[in-house]
């Protein structure tokens, strides 16, 4: 398996409710100079296959890993680098291509163990803080966060309400990989936001 900790270090997420299709490529031209991977959520199917194929090409040029949320068929069509699944989307019969890494969400220690047993290459752990982009996200307790970091030996990405002001709080848990959503896109200051976030993430 590739060096996933390096790939997952600065993990950007977007969805079709956050960025319009005609903006996606232009915004990613900026983001891909900073982030190390990019997860596409296309739940409303607002991104066309043509646009996503162009996004995959851009990710290869910029050397940014492309991860697809939930949709394995789409991930395979795009030859994506990874697929990310929520707990409700896990299926023991899923056949993940050997060249694709698998991420699974975990909001507690038991879900983290479940993800590990089902072959996850990394875990998306959270929510660390309340999130404006996912109002129904379950909060990860401090005790479970500590257990996951100490006992589960695959890469972890912290997610949920993370921003420039609170990333430093994760140092005590030895978390290195950070996923951001609104902190990247707020006020459409993509370049400045990424520069500020990377300065914090690089010091973890």
Written account of the structure:
By secondary structure, the chain is of the alpha/beta class. 35% of the residues lie in helices and 18% in strands. An 8-stranded parallel beta barrel has the order 1-2-3-4-5-6-7-8. Helix 2 packs parallel to helix 3 (49-62). 41% of the residues are buried.
Unreliable residue runs: none
- Note the main sheet: 8 strands, parallel, barrel
The share of residues in extended strands comes to 15-25%
Give the helix/strand class: alpha/beta
SSE arrangement, N to C: HEHEHEHEEHEHEEHH
Number of continuous helical runs: 8
Average residue-wise pLDDT: 93
Number of strands: 8
**Order of strands across the widest beta sheet?**
1-2-3-4-5-6-7-8
N-to-C span: 23 Å
**Rg on CA atoms, Å:** 16 Å
Instruction: Kindly state the percentage of residues in helix.
Output: 25-40%
- Described by the principal axes of the CA atoms, the overall outline is globular
Task: Give structural attributes.
alpha/beta; eight-stranded parallel beta barrel; 8 helices
Q: TL;DR of this structure?
A:
This protein is α/β, with parallel strands linked by helices. 35% of the residues lie in helices and 18% in strands.
Task: Please outline the helices and strands.
Blueprint (H helix, E strand, L loop, with lengths): L3 H4 L2 E6 L5 H11 L5 E5 L7 H14 L2 E5 L2 H7 L3 E4 L15 E6 L2 H9 L4 E4 L16 H10 L4 E3 L18 E4 L1 H4 L4 H12 L3
Parallel strand pairs: 1-2, 1-8, 2-3, 3-4, 4-5, 5-6, 6-7, 7-8
Helix pairs in contact: 2-3
């Amino acid at each position: 398996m590739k060096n996933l900790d390096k790939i997952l270090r600065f993990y950007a997420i977007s969805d079709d409710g956050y960025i319009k299709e005609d903006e996606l490529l232009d915004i990613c031209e900026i983001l891909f100079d900073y982030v190390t991977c990019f997860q596409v959520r296309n739940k409303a199917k607002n991104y066309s296959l043509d646009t996503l194929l162009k996004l995959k090409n851009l990710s290869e040029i910029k050397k940014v890993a492309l991860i697809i949320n939930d949709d394995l068929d789409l991930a395979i069509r795009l030859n994506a680098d990874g697929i990310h699944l929520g707990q409700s989307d896990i299926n023991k019969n899923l056949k993940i291509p050997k060249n694709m890494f698998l991420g699974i969400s975990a909001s507690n220690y038991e879900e983290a163990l479940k993800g590990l047993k089902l072959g996850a290459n990394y875990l998306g752990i959270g929510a660390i803080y309340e999130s404006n982009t996912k109002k129904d996200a379950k909060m990860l307790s401090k005790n479970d966060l500590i257990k996951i970091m100490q006992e589960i030996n695959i890469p972890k990405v912290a997610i949920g309400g993370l921003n420039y002001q609170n990333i430093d709080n994760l140092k005590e848990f030895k978390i290195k990989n950070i996923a951001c959503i609104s902190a990247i896109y707020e006020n459409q200051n993509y370049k400045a936001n990424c520069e500020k976030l990377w300065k914090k993430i690089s010091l973890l």
